[in-house]
């Protein structure tokens, strides 16, 4: 199960709730921005400048550092045709890369299947958080979902493996619905041993981890610390997933959005330093995304669901720069009061799948999409 071969890893951070792109990459030299946002506009002197037109939210110093080092790609105007402003539907579209249908496979689940075609490693994909995002769901693909790596396991307090098998079988018979008990029992029979093995091996990662980095005591920092622990343990994990938010800033945005990015920036700084210390920085790519942007006009103290978002890709092998067109703020160019999307998110997925993970992206993203040059093949 333990791998000694150094392979490329993908870490995905979902900013759930709809991150406000306009207050993340701020067009501080555009008067329309301040006209539209008298209540939540970020003062020109507070922005962390990228160039003469745009700058980072002042609570993003670690992201700015990545930019200054040439290790951050900013994907402007990211979205998809006919944007959906429902959290649930929009997330599902991003999860499955299917804007026009209800997808059955998560794009990362499909990637895990292709990375481990023989199903030899139940830890190829790991989610840090409760539940399992649909992005990681694919038939026949096991993915561990870890709330706390220190206490993770399936019935971890039961030391004897045979006893645990009997306990899991009992749970299947107790909680499986009457018509599906055979299916539940079959699933446990087929996957129980692998699940137990994966859980037990994951629990060893903190014991094998040593770092001088002290992560902040926030969920996103601890999630990325867990990711670093698993990555440094050499378990063959290739895809790791974490979430941060909620970015659903209908009100009190300046405070709430600023705190969310402050926590994210701190976590990113610690994670970056840790990966460098572990010798993993050059072989790690991180994607940061959110299901949509927000309205151009504020509602007084916040703003509502919109489109035309922003995503970030960073890592030691990333060729930084601005990618995708920053959406126009002219009234005539807005899409129902939103920034119009200019960049299909599937182009970013296709680039990562092909150029970073070495996979055929077309079946996973359901088509051919133009790729970016933020990473070489």
Question: Taking all residues together, what is the mean pLDDT?
Answer: 89
Q: What percentage of the residues does DSSP assign to strands (E)? A: 5-15%
Structural class of the secondary structure composition?
alpha/beta
Number of helices: 10
Helix content: 25-40%
CATH superfamily of the largest domain: Alkaline Phosphatase, subunit A
What is the overall shape? globular
> Secondary-structure element sequence?
EEHEEHEHHEEHHHEHEEEEHH
Can you walk me through this structure?
Residues 154-158 and 170-193 have low confidence and may be disordered. Helix content is 34%, strand content 14%. The protein is built from ten helices and twelve strands. A hairpin with a 5-residue loop joins β3 (48-49) and β4. The chain has helices at residues 31-36, 61-68, 87-96, 107-115, 161-175, 181-203, 219-232, 253-278, 345-356, 362-365; strands at 9-15, 25-26, 48-49, 55-56, 72-79, 125-128, 144-146, 239-244, 284-289, 309-315, 321-323, 343-344. By secondary structure, it is an alpha/beta fold. The relative contact order is 0.22. The strands form two sheets. Strands 1, 5, 6, 7, 8, 9, 10, 11 and 12 form a nine-stranded mixed sheet that branches. It has a three-stranded antiparallel sheet with strand order 2-4-3. The protein folds into two domains: 9-149 and 215-365, Alkaline Phosphatase, subunit A (3-Layer(aba) Sandwich); 153-204, no CATH class. It is globular.
